[in-house]
Amino acid sequence: MVLKENCTICKGRIEKKYMPMKEWKINGPLCSKCYSKKIGEHYPGEHIRVNLDE
Ligand SMILES: [Zn+2]
Question: Which sequence spans correspond to the domains of the chain?
Answer without folding.
Answer: 1-54
